[in-house]
C-alpha cells in the first residue's frame, strides 16, 4: 500500500480524534479554545468541527450577540451527548439491574427485575434480562435503534476476550446467549466480571476517582475483587486476576463467604444457641434465621452479641485485605456489595488490624454507589468502547 496515499486520510482521522477528545472533556468551546488546546490551525479546527457536526458527533451552540458587539459572535461547539446511548447491566444470581445512559454518562433510565425463584432456567433468565433492558430503554424514552453498545457484569470470572473463564462453577447461570439476543438489535455486547466493573465504577464516579492503583472487593454474599493497576484493569492470563479462590488456605478466613453471608450465618447461629437480646427482638420469636441487616442494626443499638459478630467479621476481612494489599499493592481498597452502606461500622477494626499485617497499609473506604455499583461500571465499559470506536460508528440519536 502506498503510504503517501494514506497520509492525508490518516492526518484527517487524527485531527478528528484530537478535536473530539477535547469536545468530550468540556461543556463547550470556541474555535480559539480548540486552537489553543490542540495546536491546530484555525482553518483545520473549523473544518474538523464542521465534519463532526455532519457526522452527528458535535453540535454548534447558538452564540447570542452581546450589546455593542461588532461582527459575528464566535462559533461555539459542543459534543453531542445524545448522539447515541449505552446500556449497563448487572446480571446477578437473583436480580438483573440495568442503566441506560447517554454518551456523557448521564443516566436517563433504569430498571430492576428479579429472576424466578431459585434463579430460573437459562431460558427464563435470558427472557428476564432482555425484558429488563427493554424496560430501561422505555424508562429512558429511547428505542433499541438508539443504542450503540451494551456491557454486562456477571458473577463469574471473564477472560480478557470477554468470554466466561473455563471451569466456572456458575457459568450455566450466565451463559445465556445474550450476545445474540442483543446483537439482533445491532449492538456490540461486552461481558465482564462484576467485581472488575465495580473497580471501573469506583475509579470513574466513586471513592477512587482518578486513583490509578485501587482494588474493589465485592463483599456481600461472596468475595470477589477487581484491581486497577497504573490505570489499567487487570485480567490475567485466564481472567482470574482478583479472584478470591484459595481463601480456604488462609488461617482465620477459610472460604469466600462475604460480609452479608457471615452476618446472617453467625447471627442465626447465635439465635439457635439461645441468644435473647436485640437480634431476637428484631427477628421475632418464630424463626432462628437472622438477616445481615438485623445483625448490623442490633450492633449499632448496643447488642453485645451482634457487636461481637461484627468484630469477628472485621478481623476476618482484615486478613483478606492484607492478601489483596500484599499481592497488588493498591493505594485504596473499596468495600462494595450488598452491605456496603453498613460496612462503615467495620472500618475501625479493619484499619487497626490491617496495620498489623501490612506496612504502610492502603486507605480503606466503603462504596457509596449502592446497588448501582456494577451497572455503573458496565456503563463505563460501554462508553470506553464507544469512545474508542467513535469514528467507525454511526450516531443513533433518538427519533
UniProtKB/TrEMBL annotation:
InterPro entries: ATPase_NBD, ROK, WH-like_DNA-bd_sf, WH_DNA-bd_sf. Pfam families: ROK. SUPFAM superfamilies: Actin-like ATPase domain, Winged helix' DNA-binding domain. Belongs to the ROK (NagC/XylR) family. This is ROK family transcriptional regulator. The lineage of its organism: Bacteria, Bacillati, Actinomycetota, Actinomycetes, Micrococcales.
Amino acid at each position: 500500500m502506498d503510504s503517501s496515499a494514506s497520509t492525508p486520510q490518516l492526518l484527517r482521522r487524527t485531527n478528528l480524534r484530537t478535536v473530539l477528545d477535547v469536545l468530550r472533556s468540556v461543556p463547550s468551546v470556541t474555535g480559539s479554545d480548540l486552537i489553543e488546546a490542540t495546536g491546530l490551525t484555525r482553518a483545520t479546527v473549523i473544518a474538523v468541527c464542521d465534519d463532526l457536526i455532519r457526522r452527528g458527533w458535535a453540535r454548534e451552540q447558538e452564540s447570542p450577540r452581546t450589546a455593542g458587539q461588532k461582527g459575528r459572535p464566535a462559533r461555539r461547539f459542543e459534543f453531542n451527548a445524545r448522539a447515541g446511548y449505552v446500556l449497563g447491566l448487572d446480571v446477578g444470581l437473583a436480580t438483573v439491574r440495568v442503566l441506560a445512559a447517554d454518551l456523557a454518562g448521564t443516566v436517563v433510565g433504569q430498571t430492576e427485575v428479579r429472576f424466578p425463584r431459585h434463579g430460573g432456567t437459562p431460558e427464563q433468565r435470558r427472557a428476564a434480562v432482555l425484558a429488563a433492558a427493554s424496560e430501561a430503554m422505555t424508562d429512558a424514552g429511547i428505542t433499541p435503534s438508539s443504542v450503540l453498545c451494551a456491557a454486562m457484569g456477571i458473577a463469574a470470572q471473564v477472560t480478557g476476550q470477554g468470554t466466561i473463564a473455563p471451569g466456572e462453577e456458575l457459568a450455566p447461570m450466565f451463559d445465556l446467549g445474550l450476545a445474540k439476543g442483543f446483537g439482533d438489535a445491532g449492538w456490540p455486547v461486552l461481558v465482564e466480571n462484576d467485581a472488575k466493573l465495580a473497580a471501573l465504577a469506583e475509579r470513574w464516579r466513586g471513592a477512587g476517582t482518578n486513583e490509578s492503583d485501587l482494588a474493589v472487593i465485592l463483599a456481600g454474599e461472596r468475595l470477589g475483587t477487581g484491581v486497577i493497576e497504573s490505570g489499567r484493569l487487570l485480567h490475567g492470563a485466564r481472567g482470574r486476576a482478583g479472584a478470591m479462590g484459595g481463601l480456604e488456605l488462609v488461617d482465620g478466613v477459610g472460604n469466600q463467604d462475604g460480609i452479608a453471608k457471615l452476618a446472617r450465618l453467625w447471627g442465626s447461629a447465635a439465635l439457635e444457641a439461645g441468644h435473647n437480646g436485640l437480634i431476637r427482638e428484631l427477628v421475632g420469636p418464630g424463626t432462628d434465621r437472622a438477616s445481615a441487616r438485623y445483625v448490623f442494626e442490633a450492633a449499632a443499638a448496643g447488642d453485645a452479641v451482634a457487636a461481637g459478630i461484627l468484630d469477628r467479621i472485621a478481623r476476618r476481612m482484615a486478613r483478606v485485605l492484607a492478601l489483596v494489599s500484599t499481592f497488588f499493592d493498591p493505594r485504596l481498597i473499596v468495600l462494595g456489595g450488598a452491605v456496603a452502606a453498613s460496612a462503615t461500622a467495620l472500618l475501625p477494626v479493619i484499619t487497626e488490624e490491617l496495620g498489623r499485617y501490612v506496612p504502610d497499609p492502603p486507605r480503606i473506604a466503603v462504596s457509596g454507589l449502592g446497588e448501582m455499583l456494577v451497572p455503573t461500571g458496565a456503563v463505563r465499559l460501554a462508553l470506553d468502547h464507544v469512545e474508542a470506536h467513535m469514528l467507525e460508528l454511526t450516531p443513533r440519536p433518538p427519533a
